[in-house]
Amino acid sequence: MKSRPSAHRSRSSKSAASDGSASKFAITDWENDDWSANIDEEEPDSRRIRSIENIPQPAALSRVHSSTSSIAPSKSPHSRDCSVDSRAQNDAQLNAEIEEINARLARITKFKSILRQPVIDLAALRKLAWAGIPDELRPQAWKLLLGYLPKNSNRREETLRRKRQDYLDGLETVFSRPLDQVMWHQISIDVPRTNPHIPLYTHHTTQKALERILYLWAVRHPASGYVQGINDLVTPFFQVFLSEYIDADDITDYDPKSLAKNDLNAIEADCYWCLTKLLDGIQDNYIQAQPGIQRQVAELRDLTKRIDSTLAAHLEHENVEFIQFSFRWMNCLLMRELSIDNIIRMWDTYMAEEPLGFSRFHVFVCAALLVKFSSELQQMDFQDIMIFLQSIPTGDWDEKNVELLLSEAYMWQTLFKDSSAHLKDNE
């Protein structure tokens, strides 16, 4: 996430609602959190979260004059030559930064022009979002792209109020009766293992929020219930929607316990509904026998044969089955292979590719990732291949690496979108 003006400060200090509209939901003995609060219906959502009209603009341009004026005049010819070279390098760097800032501001302006419309043009929003969404506009854009928020702006406030209340009512219902002990036990084990290297996800408030979201979703979707891996999928939503309510230099260090209860309720509800929208499109990945994942793994194998037949032949020669390494890629949507910041950027494109972004397009991304390391893999035996693919070296990847991967995936999709059918015809 980009830097923001001040660190770890909640944007809303308004206390939890205490009027008659508050939910009656109370956490049982196993939960210490106070859930008597409800969403503040007297304070519209648009007042509590950052408006697109009030986005802080980059202030880096002020460094131009100070940087160039700080170069002192040299006395010797050699020193003057060095000074000229240094000044030229500084000027080039500053010009590049200015161009980058201007490009970002231009993209923000384009997004604002779409998001201000009384009725959102989703096709235009998807087209623009494919290349990435500015951090400060991502929460609203994601909710629109997933269909959680209606296109008509006049209906959004009421939709948010109703959906958030439904989430709280759902919690009250499922936690007022005996828990499914097997399901709850698995969730309570998996949540602390979720992104343990990121401080945000080690905090008690975060973990309890994730537990509530996952348990309610699992109870309401008995065909699949809770499946390991879904815990990973909720975290990009939590991080993005949390950014609506705080100013933090690094959101991954933030402890949500300082949030107003109403704000945490809203974040949880938004995460729950957007997770539901995402999983609705890939739910056959998580039902009995996981046929969706089996199909994606088969498609990945077929794509690899078409894109890089040499690599495919080497994997076959070493008795490497695609299911052995790519099951996790499909089950967790590469969240174990890429940083969460890179995943968030990747999901911008996935949502722009809807309704098949998280299913069909994801297979092409996996294929692009696999063939990127083709030369290294072709020098390895079975054991080394499996070790490598379980820990792909993407730790130093940034947004540019992800965008290159997405571009390659789009190219493969354009060329081989019917690869499985072609292969079957050729067999």
What are the main properties of this structure?
single chain, 427 residues, mainly alpha, Helicase, Ruva Protein, domain 3, Cyclin A, domain 1, 2 domains, two-stranded antiparallel ribbon, 20 helices, globular, disordered N terminus, disordered C terminus
At a glance:
The chain is 58% helix and 1% strand. With 427 residues, the chain is mostly helical. Helix 12 crosses helix 14 and helix 12 (291-307) crosses helix 16 (357-372).
Textual characterization of the structure:
The protein has 2 domains: 1-47 and 75-280, Helicase, Ruva Protein, domain 3 (Orthogonal Bundle); 291-426, Cyclin A, domain 1 (Orthogonal Bundle). Helix content is 58%, strand content 1%. The protein has helices at residues 45-48, 63-69, 77-115, 122-129, 138-145, 156-174, 181-190, 204-220, 230-233, 235-242, 261-280, 291-307, 309-317, 322-331, 340-352, 357-372, 374-377, 382-390, 399-416, 419-426, and strands spanning 9-10, 246-247. Helix 12 (291-307) packs across helix 14, helix 15 crosses helix 16 (357-372) and helix 15 runs parallel beside helix 19 (399-416). It is globular, with a radius of gyration of 24 Å.
